């Protein structure tokens, strides 16, 4: 300790002896520390505490009750995660019928206790701009005891049955003001006075909502499962049930969230309960990014320390000459790193905490479920600060070792002769570099074969250690290859220097400088190579994943077509969905008021949905007997076995309807076939010998699969032509209504089709819901109106590619700036020589540009190529894909990889040329 204190004191002085190098190291440490601290603050501020969760769930109330199941014993809830339940095996609740009655939570309120019932429904208000569909909340949610769950923003609470409140967004949308009258047209018709604005604190501030007194809508009953008692939540302002009382209420199918029980839970938790949290994934991801950032900082800051050690060689020689041993010198350099690490960590921690708090305030939209409050994660911030300290210390270790190898006599007399080459080290490097490259490549590919073998196993599901081993091998192999390339970097830079020497004086000087100063060029090259490697892996993986998505994508219709299946379900769901022609036409007229780009076409289809009760299934016969070990979009498409109305196998309509569905004008053969009463088979599997067979199976249900070789109850052959689409669409057979009627095909109008210029927006979906709620009448409880737009296999990986490119560009630009700055600092003597012989300042600018070009080009090209290795290993396939296995193809995104390997170095080189160089000559030191 007596030697450590003076070493640290001397290290602190030497850390700030060169302001430029100190600022560079501090920036390299403080910038990632700032980012990590800001992320920690923002993320932790999105995680609610137990008290915050209770404040949102209950406001100031003591408890809430909600019906969750039939009024029979057997239901059991968790005391903390109150919506986590389990049903006791063999209990009445375990085998309760769908018609079993539910309990009304209001009937189970403790005697004499005050209660506030709340329910939700869909409503329609008539505003200045027409009808508006929105969510309605029924109950006294404006009560002060529920503040925190809901909050009054303006005006006063309703006092009479003909008064209501609106959200600010609904008030603005309708063009009304507090005090105006508004007509409620659904689910009841009445006129109300607007008394103020209120919003649910757990919803989007722009959400549309109306709040009415309890009893405004129809009375609720609990006579059967079809009742809406499940939609009623009862808040208890003062009375909080105990755990034993909660268990008694569970026996009636009622769940309870009690504030005292949640804050002090009993030892009676459910095994599968627990609030879902992303904190574990976040910490793991942050740890991986931190390790990568530490690697980058250690490379760049380590280069700065090495350059500083060479510049301060005379100081270390003096320390050695006065009796300082190697350990003391190492402690001095390590002390410099520790001081700069602590300083950079504190600067980054302060800046990051402030930026995180500011970012939270900026993104906080008032939704307490997403942004419950500003939290400072002390543990995470301490870990971030530790990252900065470790980064500074680790960055100085190599320089500390180099400082002990200073030639004391040469340094004391000011000799500038470069250090002699360590021949044994060079020989070891030349051996280990290729060995690591080959070993890493073989390890990656070998573990890729292991991944292939594990994926092809007939039984999957249980995790095993082999999966972890081969996964780690695929990740570790490229790291060994990069380490081997880094060891071979001097030879790589020598080759680059030889090539550059043919491109002029500036390129020759830059190549020679890169080759002769590996202490500051190799770390920069490794930094660029590693970040481009990560970007290449991300880009290649997303491209391959999208290629698999494209291979497996099945089109519903042609691109640009929106369809809606208007199916009618009964109340119990026991029977399959059917179609109602009058309801479908009504839905078409309602949809036309919102989607006016093209007319809404009404097509017939044969229902494919089956309920649990026996019914009738009509479908075209699949004429091809085949084995489908792996699904595809043609002969083994999932559409061929689909049994729901969203993928109709038989559709009826006109020639123009067929043109809309397929996206092109039908051929003459197709038009003639439809006009002459024949059908069109869009799948070759349904056509044989110029006809399609439509089979009818009676007495089948959703619980009984129809065997492939099952004999139909009846069958009819319809003459047909074949018109297979490319790509295929989810329509099996098309015919006119007259043809369907002639051959007894039970097609009913139930499919809406229209062309749209783009996907349906959220506003249009809202308008459709409003129009349906306002105009469908009793039909709105029988069916819904929702369109599906066929956009094709859209690539949603643009954000990932942008992030990868931005990360690579940021690190490459930063690394290049460090390299050029260190070269200018380390090459001061070279600049003096160039100036003494009359070299123009633009030569130094060109030298800097060529230095950037050499380092970034080599690093980017090698990193981009190495990024292909792990994805290639994960996509190995030596034969046909076994049944049930999904194989990802190897599809590199060559344009994006070209941007990484060529475009990025070009951008950095141009930027360096534009910013490097001095506008005036160097002051030359001359001997007198």
Write down the Rg: 36 Å
Shape type: globular
Taking the sheet with the most strands, its summary is: 11 strands, mixed
Q: What percent of residues adopt helix (DSSP H or I)?
A: 40-55%
Q: What percent of residues are in strands?
A: 5-15%
Number of helices: 26
Please characterize this protein's 3D structure:
The chain is globular and about 105 Å long. The chain contains 26 helices and 23 strands. It is an alpha+beta fold. 47% of the residues lie in helices and 14% in strands. The strands form 3 sheets. Strands 13, 14, 15, 16, 17, 18, 19, 20, 21, 22 and 23 form an 11-stranded mixed sheet that branches. The chain has a 6-stranded mixed beta barrel with strand order 4-5-10-7-9-8. A two-stranded antiparallel sheet has the order 2-3. The two termini are 48 Å apart.
Task: Give a quick summary of the entry.
By secondary structure, the protein is an alpha+beta fold. The protein contains 26 helices and 23 strands. Strands 13, 14, 15, 16, 17, 18, 19, 20, 21, 22 and 23 form an eleven-stranded mixed sheet that branches. A six-stranded mixed β-barrel has the order 4-5-10-7-9-8. A two-stranded antiparallel sheet has the order 2-3.
SSE topology sketch:
Blueprint: H1 4-15, H2 19-44, H3 50-58, E1 63-67, E2 75-77, E3 85-87, E4 116-127, E5 130-138, E6 150-155, E7 163-166, H4 168-174, E8 181-186, E9 190-200, E10 209-212, E11 232-236, H5 243-250, E12 254-258, H6 259-263, H7 279-311, H8 313-321, H9 326-363, H10 378-403, H11 408-412, H12 423-455, H13 465-487, H14 489-500, H15 505-516, H16 518-552, E13 561-565, H17 581-592, E14 601-605, E15 615-620, E16 650-652, H18 655-662, H19 668-675, E17 679-681, E18 687-688, E19 691-700, E20 714-722, E21 733-735, H20 737-742, E22 748-755, H21 762-775, E23 788-789, H22 798-826, H23 828-836, H24 841-866, H25 868-874, H26 894-915
Parallel strand pairs: 5-10, 7-9, 16-21, 17-20
Antiparallel strand pairs: 1-11, 1-12, 2-3, 4-5, 4-8, 4-11, 6-9, 7-10, 8-9, 13-22, 13-23, 14-16, 14-22, 15-19, 17-21, 18-19, 19-20
Helix pairs in contact: 1-9, 2-7, 2-9, 2-10, 7-10, 7-16, 7-22, 9-10, 12-13, 12-25, 13-25, 14-15, 15-24, 16-22, 16-24, 16-25, 16-26, 22-24, 22-26, 24-26
């Amino acid at each position: 300790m007596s030697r450590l204190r003076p070493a640290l004191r001397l290290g602190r002085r030497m850390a700030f002896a060169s302001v430029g190098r100190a600022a560079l190291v501090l920036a390299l440490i403080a910038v990632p520390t700032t980012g990590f601290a800001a992320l920690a603050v923002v993320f932790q501020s999105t995680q609610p505490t137990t008290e915050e969760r209770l404040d949102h769930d209950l406001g100031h109330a003591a408890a809430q009750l909600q019906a969750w199941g039939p009024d029979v014993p057997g239901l059991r809830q968790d005391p903390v995660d109150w919506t986590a339940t389990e049903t006791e095996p063999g209990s009445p609740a375990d085998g309760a019928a769908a018609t079993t009655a539910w309990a009304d939570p209001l009937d189970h309120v403790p005697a004499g206790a005050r209660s506030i019932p709340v329910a939700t429904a869909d409503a329609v208000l008539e505003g200045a701009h027409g009808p508006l569909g929105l969510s309605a909340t029924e109950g006294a949610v404006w009560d002060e005891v529920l503040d925190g769950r809901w909050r009054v923003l303006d005006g006063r609470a309703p006092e009479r049955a003909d008064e209501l409140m609106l959200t600010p967004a609904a008030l603005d949308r309708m063009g009304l003001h507090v005090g105006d009258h508004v007509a409620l047209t659904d689910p009841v018709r009445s006129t109300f006075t607007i008394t103020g604005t209120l919003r649910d604190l757990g919803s989007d501030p722009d959400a549309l909502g109306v709040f009415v007194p309890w009893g405004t809508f129809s009375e609720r009953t609990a006579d059967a499962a079809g009742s809406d008692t499940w939609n009623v939540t009862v808040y208890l302002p003062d009375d909080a049930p105990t755990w034993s009382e909660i268990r008694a209420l569970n026996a009636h199918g009622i769940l309870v969230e009690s504030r005292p029980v949640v804050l002090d839970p009993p030892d009676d938790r459910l095994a599968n309960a627990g609030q879902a949290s992303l904190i574990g994934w976040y910490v793991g991801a942050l740890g991986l990014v931190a390790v990568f950032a530490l690697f980058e900082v250690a490379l760049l800051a380590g280069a700065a320390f090495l350059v500083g050690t060479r510049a301060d060689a005379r100081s270390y020689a003096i320390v050695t000459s006065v009796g300082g041993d190697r350990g003391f010198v190492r402690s001095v350099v390590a002390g410099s790193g520790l001081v700069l690490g602590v300083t950079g960590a504190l600067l980054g921690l302060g800046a990051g905490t402030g930026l995180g708090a500011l970012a939270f305030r900026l993104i906080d939209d008032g939704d307490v479920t997403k942004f419950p409050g500003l939290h400072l994660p002390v543990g995470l911030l301490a870990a971030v600060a530790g990252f900065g300290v470790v980064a500074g210390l680790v960055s100085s270790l190599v320089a500390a070792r180099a400082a002990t190898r200073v030639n004391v006599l040469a340094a004391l007399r000011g000799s500038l002769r470069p250090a002699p080459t360590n021949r044994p080290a060079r020989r070891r490097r030349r051996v280990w570099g290729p060995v690591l490259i080959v070993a890493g490549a073989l390890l990656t590919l070998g573990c890729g074969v292991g991944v292939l073998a594990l994926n092809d196993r007939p039984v999957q599901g249980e995790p095993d250690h082999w999966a972890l081993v081969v996964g780690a091998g695929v990740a570790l192999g490229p790291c060994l290859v990069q380490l081997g390339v880094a060891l071979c970097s001097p030879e790589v830079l020598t080759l680059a220097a030889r090539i550059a020497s043919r491109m002029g004086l500036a390129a020759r000087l830059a190549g020679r400088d890169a080759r002769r100063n590996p202490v500051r060029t190799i770390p920069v090259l490794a930094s660029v190579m590693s970040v481009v490697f990560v970007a290449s892996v991300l880009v290649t993986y997303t491209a391959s994943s999208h290629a698999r998505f494209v291979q497996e994508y099945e089109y519903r219709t042609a691109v640009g077509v929106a369809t809606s299946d208007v199916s009618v379900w009964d109340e119990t769901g026991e029977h399959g969905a059917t179609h109602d022609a009058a309801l479908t036409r009504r839905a078409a007229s309602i949809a036309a008021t919102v989607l006016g780009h093209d007319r809404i076409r009404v097509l017939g289809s044969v229902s494919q949905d089956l309920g649990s009760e026996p019914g009738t299934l009509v479908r075209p016969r699949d004429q091809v007997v085949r084995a489908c070990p792996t699904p595809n979009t043609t002969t083994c498409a999932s559409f061929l076995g689909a049994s729901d109305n969203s993928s109709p196998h038989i559709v009826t309509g006109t020639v123009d309807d067929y043109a809309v569905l397929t996206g092109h004008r039908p051929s003459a053969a197709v038009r003639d076939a439809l006009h002459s009463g024949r059908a069109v088979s869009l799948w070759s599997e349904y056509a044989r010998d110029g006809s399609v067979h439509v089979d009818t199976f009676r007495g089948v249900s959703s619980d009984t699969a129809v065997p492939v070789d099952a004999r139909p109850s009846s069958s009819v052959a319809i003459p047909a032509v074949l018109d297979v689409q490319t790509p295929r669409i989810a329509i099996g057979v098309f015919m006119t209504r007259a043809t369907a009627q002639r051959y007894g095909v039970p097609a009913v109008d139930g499919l809406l089709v229209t062309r749209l210029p783009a996907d349906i927006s959220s506003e249009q979906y809202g308008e459709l819901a409003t129009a349906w709620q306002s105009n469908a009448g009793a039909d709105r409880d029988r069916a819904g109106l929702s369109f599906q737009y066929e956009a094709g296999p859209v690539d949603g990986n643009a954000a990932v590619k942008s992030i990868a490119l931005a990360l690579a560009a940021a690190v490459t630009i930063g690394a290049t700036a460090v390299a050029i700055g260190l070269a200018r600092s380390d090459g001061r003597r070279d600049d003096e020589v160039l100036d003494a012989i009359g070299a123009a300042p633009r030569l130094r600018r060109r030298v800097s540009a060529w230095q950037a070009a050499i380092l970034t080009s080599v690093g980017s090209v090698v990193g981009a190529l190495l990024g292909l290795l792990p994805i290639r290993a994960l996509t190995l396939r030596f034969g046909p894909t076994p049944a049930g296995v999904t194989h990802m193809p190897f599809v590199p995104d060559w344009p994006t990889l070209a941007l990484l390997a060529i475009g990025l170095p070009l951008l950095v080189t141009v930027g360096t040329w534009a910013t490097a160089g001095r506008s005036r000559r160097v002051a030359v030191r001359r001997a007198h």
